[in-house]
Amino acid sequence: IEHFPDDETIYRDYAIALLTYNEEEQATTLLYDALSRFPDSKEIRELYDEINDKTTREPLSILPEKRDDFLKLALYLEREGDTKKAIEVLKELTNRYPHFTQGYQALGIILSRLGMHNEAIEALNRAIELGAKDDTYTHYNLGIEYANTGQLDKAIEEYHISISIYRDFPEAHLELGRCLNAIGETDKAMTEIKTAVELNPTNSNAWREYALTLAVNKRWEEALNAIEKALTISPDNIENHLAEGYIFFSVGDNSKAKRSFTNAIKLAPNDPNPLTCLGIVLSSEGKLKEAERALKRSLELDKDNSSILADLGEVYLQKKEYSKAIRCFNDSIYNNPDYIRAYIGLGTALWANKEYEKAIDVFKKVKNKRIKAERFEIREVMSHTSNLTELNILGLIDSTDDEDEIEFLREILELLEGIL
Q: What is the number of other CB atoms lying within 10 angstroms of the CB of residue 389?
């Protein structure tokens, strides 16, 4: 398994060997891990079901007595879609057997699927304390949870540990690369993501991240070739179409960018991301009514999203509908008090509306805000690269002869460039 992690037959044979020695608990955990790697494997699914059926034919309201039966019951419940009940069973398991490493490992993974990331971190750290310190997957899963909570330094550390245990782990290289991109270490990110592609060349996610990293480094032709490979592998993957649209938008081919985003909308009409990206392209072309319509549709699907609210605010700024812009930026800040782009937009809108004192107060808050590194998100990067905020501030500079005003606005512009 260490040398051939992508060979599902080895997992199956190892599980059968464990069952021969009555190690059902280890076999169950092994097959559960195998199913996460090979969800379409009929042989592994049948073997996993065969083991679980022995312990789950009784009424589920009766909790088992044996430790391994607890684990099997929880995994069965999770597979059947009753994730909350699975968590209850695992919490009872860890209460009764507080030194059972595998119980905490399973609890961490299932908590993550419910979005309970802080609790997942606690469970996975406990598993490492108890005996999983040399388990590559536990460190990898812990890295995922740290990344989900914005703790990128800790995520990077866990991915490094995971890779040090098992060097040929493509997913760990991929996620490490994504985090390195987020903190601006693009050269290191490129190395990790390229390794992920080489280890698993049929993974469209790896090709997509490779394409985006190439795009960050302005290697446009290579980026387009890489995203084409991702789309060849997974033509119905929305993220691949979004990445393709972002790259086309970045090189100024708005027509192809709109085509990519329209394809994504057709694949997922209830996903706000492609609508937002389409709205940004339309806005950059000055097609403000169409942009407003697309962003409003996106907002209907994700009404509290600070990024979409700020994008809509930018459109209203262009339309000189300053009251509407102010409302959008205020709502954006209400939903995310640390969202710097919304503060800059609000200050710009207030200034344009001749509410100078309020604008200055907002800009002062911006200058005191600490910029936080976050993982690459296509629609957010597009919002920045569309340059609408900078253009609006430049418009304010051009509209005044007051040297103090010009100097103040230029300071804000420099701050914004620093964020980008």
A: 23
Give tens-digit pLDDT for 185-223.
Answer: 989 999 999 999 999 999 999 999 999 999 988 999 999
Q: Considering the domain boundaries, does residue 249 fall inside one? A: no
Structure tokens at 39: 């969800």
Sign, CA dihedral 381-386-392-398, equals positive
Residue 175 has pLDDT above 90, yes or no: yes
Asked whether the beta carbons of 413 and 390 are under 8 A apart, the reply is yes
- CATH of residue 365: 1.25.40.10
Contacts (Cβ under 8 Å, ≥6 apart) of 130 = 99, 100, 101, 104
Q: Which domain holds residue 302?
A: 298-420
Contacts 24+ apart (CB under 8 A), 69-74: 70/96, 70/97, 70/103, 71/25, 71/28, 71/29, 71/102, 71/103, 71/106, 72/24, 72/25, 72/28, 74/106, 74/110
How far is 156 from 137, CA to CA, in rounded Å?
14
330 neighbors 309 (Cβ within 8 angstroms): no
Indicate the pTM of the whole model.
Answer: 0.73
